């Protein structure tokens, strides 16, 4: 939560989603989402409803949307514990086995909580942690090791409602994960495959039907009140396009493989654990543990294969894979603790690099980057602050290494914990304590990274100033439009805008028509694109000359804004008349810009 509150909403994803929620709220529409006034069919509405729920209680504010994902993340960590208890129940276990079972459940939760990918996206206003949490609720009733269970209405209700929420979270992709686990039950449960099919197929079908019914709570009103192509694009068009021929994130089938180490970091620092744990999991194990191991392997490998074949790829699409990875790694960590010498060497190397980098950070740190909240570095200072950021990041890595250093040593590093001895009990507690420290180290690392290391970059990513600028001119009755780029509602929520921004092409006739209708209006354009506009006369040349004058004015130009590495220029409509228009036509003061 502190990491989420320490930074601005980041363009373009977070600003887009919070703006979609704002437009739905302002329009009083709980069913049809819009982005810059147009129907938004890329995502369903559960995330936006969660934002609205907080606004109903606390009023519209900037804080609540930042807290949604941290709270959902805590729910997901609780949910994976429920899945673990269902998959390997403690019923009928001896006292020693029962204690080992409890250690494993707690280890599963701490591994998920400590995965860097989970920690990063738990403070981001995005959909993947929400999807994973809902999927855990939908799959929990179907993770029983005893296959062929009789029909149960409670199972159908729990699974169907949670699956419906997963569909509302991210659409039909939730069905892929659900069918991957449930459809494979004949092969990983303890019952015969035929018995599972015969006894459980009705429950699977009814769960799917109930999930569709939950989806229809939103879908039917959206069909009635939304544009004709809105529902088709939402339920089929955008999903099919990403599966077959993604335009935005098309990547080769092997693209996920190099990212697997990042997905499970920091446990990827222990390759011996991963290798020996996997080899041990495929070896013959007690019957009670076989469903856990089979499901974990099938879920992890099957999910990776399926999503590698899908055209559109992003690392966070694999977020649900952290569930089987946590189940398997928790099982392996309790059996294959590392030798102290290798960890000690790793900690010494990482700690030395961290301390050296911390000293470097003090040397190159620009004055004011920690103390001045409005600090916006020049290009030279930005380079220095980038070096400081890297140094502080490595200092954070040293903290993480210290967490690893505290990993308890044991003499019986290769002894199986299945032995009912005090040594086995001590081994499990040591591994659990170490994983707890590692998870807390990951959270601390991300918090320090976002709150301190990247602090000099946040002013360049914070869109509040430009959003307030747009709000000011819209309230004055002046039209504001964007030119030559795909505007994705970046400023709608931050400026509490009530009017969409018109999008114009870099076309002389369109710009002339717009200037005629809005002579006192303003255009926003990327500086690099503006400076490359062709022609010697007309609106394009006038805009180019005005932009050149604004850029030459440097830090004193109140028309220059930043969006990451892009410079955005606010150009008055009068500038389209020719190069004689001057940047002094701006009516916004420096104080208004801040």
From TrEMBL:
GO terms for biological process: lipopolysaccharide biosynthetic process; response to iron(III) ion. One of its GO terms (cellular component) is plasma membrane. The keyword Hydrolase does not apply. It is found in: Cell membrane. Keywords: Cell membrane, Glycosyltransferase, Membrane, Transferase, Transmembrane, Transmembrane helix. PANTHER family: MANNOSYLTRANSFERASE YKCB-RELATED, UNDECAPRENYL PHOSPHATE-ALPHA-4-AMINO-4-DEOXY-L-ARABINOSE ARABINOSYL TRANSFERASE. This is Glycosyltransferase RgtA/B/C/D-like domain-containing protein. InterPro entries: LipidA_mod_glycosyltrf_83.
């Amino acid at each position: 939560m502190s990491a989420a509150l320490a930074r601005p909403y980041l363009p373009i994803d977070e600003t887009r989603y919070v703006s979609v929620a704002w437009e739905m709220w302002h329009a009083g529409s709980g069913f049809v989402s819009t982005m810059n006034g147009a129907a938004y069919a890329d995502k369903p509405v559960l995330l936006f409803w969660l934002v609205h729920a907080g606004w109903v209680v606390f009023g519209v504010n900037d804080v609540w949307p930042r807290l949604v994902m941290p709270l959902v993340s805590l729910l997901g960590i609780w949910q994976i514990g429920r899945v673990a208890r269902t998959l390997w129940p403690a019923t009928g276990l001896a006292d020693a086995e029962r204690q080992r079972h409890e250690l494993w459940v707690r280890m599963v939760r701490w591994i998920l909580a400590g995965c860097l990918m989970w920690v990063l996206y738990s403070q981001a206003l995005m959909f993947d942690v929400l999807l994973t949490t809902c999927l855990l609720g939908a799959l929990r009733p179907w993770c029983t090791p005893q296959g062929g269970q009789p029909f149960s209405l409670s199972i159908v209700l729990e699974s169907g409602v949670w699956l419906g929420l997963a569909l509302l979270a991210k659409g039909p992709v939730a069905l892929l994960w659900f069918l991957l686990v449930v459809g494979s039950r004949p092969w990983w449960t303890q019952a015969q495959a035929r018995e599972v099919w015969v006894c459980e197929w009705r429950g699977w079908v009814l769960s799917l039907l109930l999930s569709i019914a939950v989806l229809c709570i939103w879908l039917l009103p959206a069909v009635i009140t939304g544009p004709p192509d809105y529902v088709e694009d939402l339920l089929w068009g955008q999903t099919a396009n990403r599966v077959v021929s993604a335009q935005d994130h098309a990547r080769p089938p092997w693209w996920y493989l190099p990212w697997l180490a990042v997905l499970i970091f920091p446990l990827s620092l222990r390759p011996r654990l991963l290798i020996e744990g996997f080899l041990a999991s495929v070896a013959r194990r007690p019957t009670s543990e076989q469903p856990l191991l089979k499901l974990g392997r099938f879920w992890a490998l099957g999910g990776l294969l399926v999503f590698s074949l899908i055209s559109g790829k992003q690392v966070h699409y694999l977020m649900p894979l952290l569930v089987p990875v946590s189940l398997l790694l928790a099982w392996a960590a309790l059996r294959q603790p590392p030798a102290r010498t290798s960890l000690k060497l790793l900690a010494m190397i990482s700690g030395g690099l961290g301390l050296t980098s911390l000293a470097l950070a003090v040397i190159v740190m620009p004055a004011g980057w920690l103390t001045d909240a409005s600090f916006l570095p020049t290009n030279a200072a930005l380079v220095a602050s980038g070096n400081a950021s890297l140094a502080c990041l490595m200092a954070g890595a040293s903290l993480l290494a210290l967490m690893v250093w505290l990993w308890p040593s044991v003499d019986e590093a290769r002894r199986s914990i299945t032995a009912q001895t005090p040594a086995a009990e001590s081994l499990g507690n040591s591994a659990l304590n170490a994983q707890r420290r590692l998870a807390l180290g990951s959270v601390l690392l991300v918090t320090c990274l976002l709150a301190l290391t990247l602090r000099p970059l946040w002013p360049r990513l914070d869109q509040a100033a430009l959003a307030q600028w747009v709000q000011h001119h819209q309230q004055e009755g002046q039209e504001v439009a964007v030119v030559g780029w795909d505007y994705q509602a970046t400023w709608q929520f931050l400026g509490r805008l009530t009017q969409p921004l018109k999008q114009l092409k870099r076309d002389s006739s369109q710009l002339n028509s717009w200037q005629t209708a809005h002579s006192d209006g303003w255009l926003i354009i990327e500086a690099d694109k503006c400076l490359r506009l062709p022609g010697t006369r007309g609106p394009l040349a006038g805009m180019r000359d005005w932009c050149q004058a604004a850029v030459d004015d440097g830090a004193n130009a109140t028309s220059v804004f930043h969006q990451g590495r892009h410079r955005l220029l606010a150009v008055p409509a009068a500038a389209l008349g020719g190069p004689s228009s001057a940047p002094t036509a701006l009516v916004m003061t420096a104080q208004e810009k801040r």
